Amino acid sequence: xxxxxxxxxxxxxxxxxxxxxxxxxxxxxxxxxxxxxxxxxxxxxxxxxxxxxxxxxxxxxxxxxxxxxxxxxxxxxxxxxxxxxxxxxxxxxxxxxxxxxxxxxxxxxxxxxxxxxxxxxxxxxxxxxxxxxxxxxxxxxxxxxxxxxxxxxxxxxxxxxxxxxxxxxxxxxxxxxxxxxxxxxxxxxxxxxxxxxxxxxxxxxxxxxxxxxxxxxxxxxxxxxxxxxxxxxxxxxxxxxxxxxxxxxxxxxxxxxxxxxxxx
Amino acid sequence: xxxxxxxxxxxxxxxxxxxxxxxxxxxxxxxxxxxxxxxxxxxxxxxxxxxxxxxxxxxxxxxxxxxxxxxxxxxxxxxxxxxxxxxxxxxxxxxxxxxxxxxxxxxxxxxxxxxxxxxxxxxxxxxxxxxxxxxxxxxxxxxxxxxxxxxxxxxxxxxxxxxxxxxxxxxxxxxxxxxxxxxxxxxxxxxxxxxxxxxxxxxxxxxxxxxxxxxxxxxxxxxxxxxxxxxxxxxxxxxxxxxxxxxxxxxxxxxxxxxxxxxxxx
Lengths: 264, 266
Description:
The complex is a heterodimer of chains A (about 260) and B (about 270). Chain A has two domains: about 1-80 and about 160-265, 3-Layer(aba) Sandwich (Rossmann fold), CATH 3.40.50.300; about 90-155, no CATH class. Chain A has eight helices and nine strands. In chain A, about 40% of the residues lie in helices and about 20% in strands. Chain B has about 270 residues and is an all-alpha fold. Helix content of chain B is about 80%, strand content about 0%. Chain B has ten helices and no strands. Chain B has helices at about 1-35, 45-55, 55-85, 90-105, 110-120, 125-150, 150-160, 165-205, 210-220, 225-255. In chain B, α9 (about 210-220) packs antiparallel against α10 (about 225-255). The N and C termini of chain B lie close together (about 10 Å). Classes of the chains: A alpha/beta (about 260), B mainly alpha (about 270).
């Protein structure tokens, strides 16, 4: 979108091979600009999660460079440079009430209690769970637990939100509702999101841009911009343009699958 | 929920109570019918009569044994948890010392109790030490396992939030370990009592500080079988009480969040 703005994250020629010998990533390039909603789409084993962990700083690339906000390694965490991740599972602490779960990133960063509590109340209100602050995770449904997980990510007001198949385990109805909510959060909070999914429909609905990946070794296959206006609703889900994008992406994904089957 | 729950709860208490009544009744009937002498098998009524008649002696002994078991349990908890915390600091420490913890577990207490009693001058301390040796292993092994059984997703989250070692321990590892720790505690409670009784048997000390095991020993020699049974009943009751205590603690700590302590909700 804004080609001249400093990318939030820029990866050039990153590779990763695990100790087991699995080539998770062949050289991969990816640049994400502020305000983008980029989705990584591909079959399982294509290195989507590896790439996300790389961006999150949980692992280091074997080769290539990775820069956040134009700086090199270890330049996250400061003001205006915060990352947050939403995992595949809600990953909540079962022994802690919802409010304490959401407050965790602030507690770990030694944010004063009064400020933290205010931020937690705001984050829970954003995901519509103010009523559940005093509950324990097991008392909530799967969809609500995922919302808590999103609130915990938003509580630090992240400048880059990483989401690793966050709604993959949920039923289709809940998933669509959460997709809608996520888009409205993205719009109102002006978030930058990198989203991982293996659902073509979800990728088209959410993203400003979809990066299709192929497996063994993981690499970028195509980069498709979804040039459709926001806010997107059920009208968009039923439009011919939507079907067209899905069609195009299916072809890419089929190619990705074929590429994985042939000897690399 | 509570109304659905009460019949099952009633059954849980009533059913074993009915079984006990039938068994005790049959015991009483058989002893009376076949006129079994009290020095072979005393009737339940005779045991109860002895329990009441010798209550001062037996209760004093019960308190001694319980005191030893509870002291040992407390030491086993503190020491065992501390050792587990040291173990999880590095795989090296655990690999180096865990075999010795196992050694402690597999060596029969009857075999080492005489040594401990010879080496330690104060009998009471020696008895406590024996019970600690028996009770500590489940605490160490369970707590170590628990401290390592951390949800990998939560571990990633803590790492991403740049949690330091202390935060990782107090906010993630210790809460994760609690269900495992309480599992170990339930076993350790019973073992502490067994350890105390076995050590008393070996030590065989009488006098003012005599425990229940000594009363059993003495009653056996004197062929005072009703008193032997009475002491046995008290040991069993003490064991049940200790178990109930650990269950209660576990429920207190975990009931609100852990699956093992949830009430059935269907």
